[in-house]
């Protein structure tokens, strides 16, 4: 009898607690803390409020660079509608709505956990190949989740772990007696959900427009006379475009990328291209050659007596700092009328590469250039952006541009580097102002000579020596060129079933970026040093010649 009475009293107490809980509050407010690999993120929190079957989710951050957009998400569990509203930096407001489907693939698990004072059960789910572990409580008698597809009927989600790494966990639950109006106020532009999400994501990005649909060609045009112009300047008969741009003054908290889109305006061939900046902090610069001719540049003389203009560092000169080497495809867009079965040609090629290691050279006023080697009156069209993506703050690395044998002024008579390596080596003498730690050379190497015996199609060993010690020996070679066939409408098709764009090449393929190799040095003392690069360049055949476009900069921590 006593046992039965005790059970009745316990059930009565539970009923009273649940009844009291349901009567005493109209709104639930939950604060969540985010952790990654068990390390809490103290800079941001998520707050979810639930009232009258609507949940509002807002985000708070102390990181200034992430405050570009103020965003709220509303989940209406009566009609399963998600609404997102945002105010962007600058005052623009946008919103989007969509219907969401509750996840019916929840698998109950035996584990339980007490979170923020409430008993929670566990379920698991998989969304877009991500494994979710979800803890929820039914003790509050209402429904709500930080994600639309992970809601539990009559339950509030208090913790979600994604792929065992990222965790959002309730650290505070408030029960408020008043009803909070959570109906979204819709103002500004209505966007599709994908467009909205993309705009929110990109609102954190600083994008500097350098060139906008600029033509690069070979024509008899006058040379610019005024470097103070704010317009795009074209040199070397239109094959070089150059512009002084203002980049963010403080880029220490960003990852930096160059992004160039290109299409053909009449040139059907794969061409060498380069995105570079012109250092101007020494007595001479590459600008002198552009304005006055190649003769105004310091010359490197090989053992045969041949001279090469503006390609190596001197005490008074820094060569162009190559940000990205790219190779145009065979005629994308300009020759999309060529039909090949099973291929749909895109309208352009987009080349994108990270250049964060060059952050120190990518701030303030900077001369930025692009070049495509071609002799076509209607050549190519490019657009270039330099993009800064918020990331952890890092100390900028020291940069010493050392050499660029890419003959950017080819169409103004700058020499091909064909004899520079033949039975010889490129020798570069340079000085560092300070000791460097964790130093390396960012090295790009591509071979050229477009016939069977040319170095474009023949692997060649690259050896680099620093102060007479060999620090690397490797062969630049790409065997994946066939992966980019769809970018090359004008590529010739051979009787053996291959296309010319499929062929393996010395460090490049038509329609891609040539990736840099990071040649580890370690610590290097301040003072004078010597670098040598040896490549066994092939002999010429008639009017055909082999040569190597290489560029390198010393990078390290101060």
Features:
twelve-stranded mixed beta sheet; PHM/PNGase_F_dom_sf; PngaseF_N; six-stranded antiparallel beta sheet; oxidoreductase activity, acting on paired donors, with incorporation or reduction of molecular oxygen, reduced ascorbate as one donor, and incorporation of one atom of oxygen; mainly beta; 44% strand; 32 strands; Cu2_ascorb_mOase-like_C; disordered N terminus; outer membrane lipoprotein receptor (LolB), chain A; 3 helices
Characterise the protein shown here.
This protein is mainly beta. It folds into 2 domains: 21-199, outer membrane lipoprotein receptor (LolB), chain A (Clam), CATH 2.50.20; 205-557, Sandwich (Jelly Rolls). Helices cover 7% and strands 44% of the residues. The protein is built from 3 helices and 32 strands. It has helices spanning 2-24, 193-202, 286-292; strands at residues 27-36, 39-51, 54-61, 69-76, 81-88, 93-99, 107-115, 118-127, 130-137, 156-162, 166-176, 189-190, 206-216, 233-235, 240-247, 254-264, 272-278, 299-301, 307-309, 321-327, 349-354, 364-372, 380-390, 398-404, 426-432, 436-448, 462-466, 469-474, 513-514, 517-524, 527-534, 547-557. The strands form 6 sheets. The chain has a 12-stranded mixed beta sheet with strand order 7-8-9-10-11-1-2-3-4-5-6-12, with helices on one face. A 6-stranded antiparallel beta sheet has the order 14-15-22-17-20-29, covered by helices on one side. Strand 5 and strand 6 form a beta hairpin. The longest helix has 23 residues, at 2-24. It is elongated and about 95 Å long. It starts with a helix and ends with a strand. The relative contact order is 0.12. It comes from Dysgonomonas alginatilytica.
